[in-house]
């Protein structure tokens, strides 16, 4: 796997970078938004892709 497709996911509530994932940047043009568990908030929150 290449490092170009690696993206950081940031919690929308506490703004901590808690997850990393892969995205095909050639096919998927929009930024990802996923519900993930945040260990600082201790609940499932919306995580958005950061730069």
Q: How many helical stretches?
A: 0
Question: How many E-type strands?
Answer: 4
Radius of gyration: 11 Å
The description of the largest β-sheet is: 4 strands, antiparallel
CATH architecture: Single Sheet
Range of strand content: over 45%
Classified in CATH, the superfamily is Ribosomal protein L33
Task: Present the secondary structure layout.
Layout (H helix, E strand, L loop, with lengths): L5 E6 L5 E6 L10 E6 L4 E7 L2
Antiparallel strand pairs: 1-2, 1-4, 3-4
Brief digest:
The chain is mostly beta strands.
Overview of the molecule:
The protein has strands at 6-11, 17-22, 33-38, 43-49. The protein has a single domain, classed as Ribosomal protein L33 (Rubrerythrin, domain 2, Single Sheet). Helix content is 0%, strand content 49%. The chain is mostly beta strands. Strands 2-1-4-3 form a four-stranded antiparallel sheet, with no helix packed on it. The model has no long low-confidence stretch (mean pLDDT 91).
What distinguishing features does this structure have?
single chain, 51 residues, mainly beta, Rubrerythrin, domain 2, 49% strand, elongated
């Amino acid at each position: 796997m290449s490092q170009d497709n690696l993206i950081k996911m940031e919690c929308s509530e506490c703004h901590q970078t808690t997850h990393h994932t892969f995205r095909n940047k050639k096919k998927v043009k929009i930024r990802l938004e996923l519900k993930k568990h945040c260990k600082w908030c201790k609940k499932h929150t919306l995580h958005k892709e950061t730069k």
